[in-house]
Amino acid sequence: MSIIEIVVPVIGESITEVTLSSWIKEDGSYVELDEIICEFESDKATVEVPAEKAGKLIWVSAEGDDIAIGQIFAKIDTSVEAPAGGEVISIEEESPKEEKAVTESAVVSNSYASGHPSPTAQKLMKEQGLNPSDIKATGKDGRITQEDVQKVIDNKLKKASSEEKAVKKEAETVLPSKQTAFSRVERTEKMSRMRRTIASRLVSAKNSTAMLTTFNEVDLTEIMALRKKYQEKFVERYGTKLGFMSLFSKACAKVLMEMPGVNAQMGEDGKSIIYHDFVDISIAISTPTGLVVPPVKNVESLNFAEIELAIKGLAKKARDGSLTLQEMQGGTFTITNGGVFGSMMSTPIINEPQSAILGMHTIQQRPMAIDGEVKIRPMMYLALSYDHRIIDGSSSVTFLVKVKKLLEDPVTLLLDL
Predict the structure, then answer these.
(1) Does 392 participate in catalysis according to the annotation?
(2) What pLDDT does 96 receive?
(3) pLDDT 10s digits, 149-200
(4) Which listed residue (361, 392, 409, 416) is catalytic?
(5) Angstrom distances, CA of residue 379 to CA of 87, 215, 355
(6) What tens digit of pLDDT does each residue of 52-106 get?
(7) How many independent structural domains does the chain possess?
(8) Contact 350, 363 (CB under 8 A)
(9) pLDDT of the residue at 3
(10) What does 48-110 look like in DSSP terms, one character per residue?
(11) What is the pTM of this model?
């Protein structure tokens, strides 16, 4: 018997521990070389781990375990060959004739990928309690894709919804209304590694920075008129919509280049300030597992379409759980848009080691005094939280005023005036 030990690989310089979020391959199952066997959840992203050798997989750690970098989490028995007829066969136990028969059978059998789900599909199947036999595979070599699983889930939801409506209608006609009893049920669940990391960093930012928030409001009449007038042409040319995020990002980038102090950060020694001659804007993206803030690099040098496509790509990867560590690192300034959830006003917390974060909020039609007349305008409150150790109050107010002017007269932003 030849057994090799599989240890948690080095994922990033600052990462010392990960959580085994899910096993893709079952304990005792046969795995091919480089086949994905499990997923680790780190502080910043979910990482898939491939098998280092082909053989029988032996679990050492369970799902949900916190494991240090370099620690053993699995073993592989390399003396075991590919299964024939659903059984794992050991080289040491079989005769030469049996070995030949197994080899020939393995050659003529389908690819090992046939009927096997991709890592993302496997995770989705586990959450929904689905079996491979329930799903029609359309992927390469017969692999089950995420889209295949989603189709089955959608069909089940439609069927369940129809049945629920029928039962509800029958109950309404037969049974009298009954008040639901009070519930006192409590449950305790382990926090995900991402949620734990978010919690510790938010507390750290609050406790280790001199954080203040200043507010202003912006009239988005011209921005909305611009989008309405050119949206169709923009989509036709670039294949994506002109959203608020690219306009706000570009406005912030322009002002940050003019005011490098707001784009700076405190040095690790606490006695120096690091200035950046570029603007990498971290975009806050809400995902099922928590908030992530991957940066769009060199926003000051990108056009609106490039910014929109970059944000769209990062958002898709964030929600799929496929962001890489490289895509999560960096950032000199952050923008968070609580307005998509209906937030009217908030005080966002700084994304360390950055020194400032802009909070966008919901757009509301409000009466405004314009040239002595009351007019209804689409208004948004802006909030800038900043580290007072680096940024003075006057600088924070000036920053917001400059951003406000660019957004209220977007032609100056387009012409770089």
Answers:
(1) yes
(2) 46
(3) 777 777 777 676 666 666 555 555 555 555 567 888 888 877 777 777 778 7
(4) 392
(5) 67, 13, 26
(6) 888 888 888 888 788 888 888 888 888 877 766 544 545 444 444 444 444 444 4
(7) 3
(8) no
(9) 83
(10) EEE-SSSEEEEE-S-TT-EEETT-EEEEEETTEEEEETTEEEETTTS-HHHHHHHHHHHHHSP
(11) 0.62
The active-site residue out of 66, 134, 276, 388 is: 388
Q: Cα–Cα distance between 129 and 131 in angstroms, integer? A: 7
Residue of 226, 378, 357, 362 lying closest to 304 (CA atoms): 226
Percent of the chain topping pLDDT 70: 82
pLDDT at 119: 65
> Do 161 and 105 share a domain, yes or no?
no
Q: Which of 383, 402, 391 is nearest to 217 (CA)?
A: 383
For residues 328 and 45, the answer to whether their CB atoms sit within 8 Å is: yes
Of 293, 417, 302, the residue nearest 353 (C-alpha): 293
Q: How many CA atoms lie within 13 A of 174 on its CB side?
A: 6
How far apart CA 311 and CA 308 sit, in angstroms, is 5
**Is residue 215 assigned to a domain?**
yes
Here the CATH number for the domain that contains residue 55 is 2.40.50.100
- Identify the domain containing residue 366 by its residue range: 193-414
Strands 333-337 and 281-283: parallel
For residues 162 and 233, state if they share a domain: no
What is the DSSP code (8-state) at residue 180? P
pLDDT at 88: 53
